[in-house]
Specification:
There is one protein chain. The two termini are 44 Å apart. The chain contains twelve helices and 27 strands. β14 (361-365) and β15 form a beta hairpin. The strands form six sheets. Strands 10, 11, 13, 14, 15, 16, 17, 18, 19 and 20 form a ten-stranded mixed sheet that branches. The radius of gyration is 27 Å and the shape is globular. Helix content is 21%, strand content 31%. It is of the alpha+beta class and 555 residues long.
């Protein structure tokens, strides 16, 4: 069985390469694999980037329960040239604990015997029937007319295919029912109803669809990093069409991207693309309709029951109500200043309808993208408590933490395409000489296209309210501080109130021992270490994990 599974690998030898089986096809039904949660999707994306023998090693260890020796023996018998290398590579996949990996592999997303069946979209089916009839008519006309000239008054430019003409028809747009979000288990852009005063303006919708299918020279196109700007693969969904601040705005969604089309007298027509795959109740909660240098206006999801604004640099100040019109359009909201003095940091604090979740409030902030960025907070580990997951940043501790680090969001905005930023307090440390308790923080910015950036900081109790603390490491394109790399070890130099210099170190919850070698030598059990050391003395750190692995300090 393992040998047969390995034969589907694209790089397998031609003599043993097999044809990958397809999902069963049933007329009138759409069959798809079951979709799991965010953890299952993240694991699936990881598995897709490694060779087949590494995936086999991972499954044998965590799903079949084989020992390392048993898995190596089985892989060797199946023809894997280096089973030990495959097993070693598989250790870096999935959650760090074997039980968590086994749980994910046992979910419905990875069950090969389970598919989800549902009827094909009846409205879209009618559209395809209409397009088929139009296509047949077009063929008949072409056969009849032959070499006749094209009508110069036609609004469709020469060279458009019949498919492009059909896709530019406003009648092809998918529109979700108004109350779909109240009964759906999938809460994202697919359940946004079409809103706005111009949803019936066929001319505006046709211009937006034509610009998406083939932008002309008068259309300015921009996109988030690694976001495609090609035509929609299927008929897109209409989210909004209306006039906002003397600008006509159309929002469309194709299952993977959100597209904003804007036109206004005296200004160039714009088409903006943003990733939206794997969006959820928070990352699909709002979209930017219009934006100036200092303000923005948002369209909120239908499940947003309460909207307020707050200043992240004033965590003690209460949130202020934000008026939202019946069609979901907000009043203008102040934007963070991404280049000038950081004197305040506006953020949205929204609350979901009780039909979605009770008392679920969350924070969003505008970093220049089409979707605002979701802000979360992971509290410090408790004694003997399981690993904590990111939480909504609305508690007092979370707001205080973001009061320190809000201004550092400028660096996250520089790369664009940011989806969420999490502040993780991975360790707390009692400082020498009774100087109080310090926090060790990792701020991770996740992008829609995958790569992330992690900033590790040390915050002694004397850190001013709006200051982020001492920067220790800035890791880019990394998995540090994510669910797939939850082990962190960091160090810094610090002077006690007496002036005595110290080397301080701290690790995340799975660190059981910290060792210092070099000109400074020390050893401590637990997650923190403090030793007197002059600043010019070299030191190399390593940590022992509860899993038996060794961890190096982040650089």
């Amino acid at each position: 069985m393992v040998r047969a599974a390995l034969s589907y690998e694209p790089g397998a030898a031609r003599w043993r390469r097999a044809v990958r089986p397809a999902l069963p096809a049933v007329w009138g039904l759409r069959l798809t694999p079951r979709i799991g949660g965010a953890d299952e999707l993240a694991l699936e994306q990881q598995l897709a980037t490694v060779p087949a023998e590494v995936r086999a090693a991972f499954v044998l260890r965590h799903l079949e329960g084989c020992t390392a020796d048993g898995a190596a023996e089985l892989l060797a018998a199946a023809g894997v040239p280096d089973p030990q290398a495959a097993l070693h590579a598989s250790e870096r996949l999935g959650p760090q604990d074997g039980a968590g990996a086994g749980t994910l592999l046992g979910s419905v997303e990875f069950d090969p015997c389970t598919v989800q069946a549902r009827p094909t979209d009846l409205l879209r089916r009618r559209h395809w029937q209409r397009w088929g009839a139009a296509g047949a008519l077009l063929v008949a006309v072409l056969l009849t007319v032959g070499q006749s000239a094209r009508d110069p008054s036609s609004p469709e430019p020469a060279g458009r295919s019949a498919v492009e003409v059909a896709m530019a028809d406003p009648a092809s747009l998918v529109r979700a029912p108004d109350a779909d979000w109240q009964s759906s288990s999938r809460i994202d852009f697919t359940v946004w109803p079409a809103r706005g005063s111009l949803t019936g303006d066929r001319a505006l919708l046709a211009r937006a669809l034509r610009a998406w299918a083939r932008p002309g020279p008068g259309v300015h196109v921009s996109a988030a990093p690694r976001t495609g700007t090609g035509p929609a693969p299927t008929a897109p969904q209409l989210l909004y069409a209306g006039r906002v601040d003397d600008t006509d705005v159309v929002l469309l969604y194709d299952g993977e991207r959100v597209v904003r089309y804007t036109e206004a007298t005296g200004r160039p027509t714009e088409l903006v693309f943003s990733r939206a795959d794997d969006s959820d109740v928070t990352t699909a909660a709002a979209l930017v309709l219009t934006r100036t240098e200092r303000q923005a206006r948002f369209l909120f999801a239908p499940w947003v029951a309460e909207s307020t604004t707050r200043d992240l640099l004033a965590p003690d100040a209460p949130a202020r109500p934000l008026h939202v019109a019946d069609d979901g359009v907000s009043d203008e909201v102040a934007r963070p200043d991404l280049s000038g003095p950081c004197s305040n940091w506006p953020a949205l604090q929204l609350r979901s309808s009780e039909r979605i979740a009770e008392k679920h409030a969350f924070l969003l902030t505008d970093l220049g993208g089409l979707s605002p960025v979701h802000l979360t907070y992971t509290p410090p580990p408790g004694s003997g408590a399981p690993a904590r997951q990111p939480r909504e940043a609305t508690s007092t501790a979370a707001l205080v933490s973001w009061g320190h680090t809000a201004c550092t969001l400028r660096s996250a905005a520089a790369g664009g395409g940011v989806r969420a930023v999490n502040n993780w307090v991975f360790a707390e440390q009692q400082l020498p000489e009774g100087a109080g308790q310090a926090e060790w923080l990792c701020s991770r910015a996740d992008t829609w296209n995958g790569p992330g950036r992690a900033l590790v900081r040390f915050q002694p109790p004397t850190t001013p309210a709006r200051e982020p603390g001492t920067l220790i490491a800035d890791a880019r394109n990394t998995s540090y501080c994510s669910r797939f790399n939850q082990h962190v070890l960091a160090d810094t130099r610090w002077n006690a109130p007496s002036g005595t210099p110290y080397l301080l170190a701290a690790g995340s919850r799975a660190v059981t021992r910290i060792t210092v070698t070099g000109q400074v030598r020390a050893d401590a059990t637990g997650t923190t270490l403090a030793v007197k050391a002059a600043r010019d003395q070299s030191a190399q750190l390593s940590g022992a994990l509860s899993t038996g692995r060794t961890l190096s300090a982040v650089q």
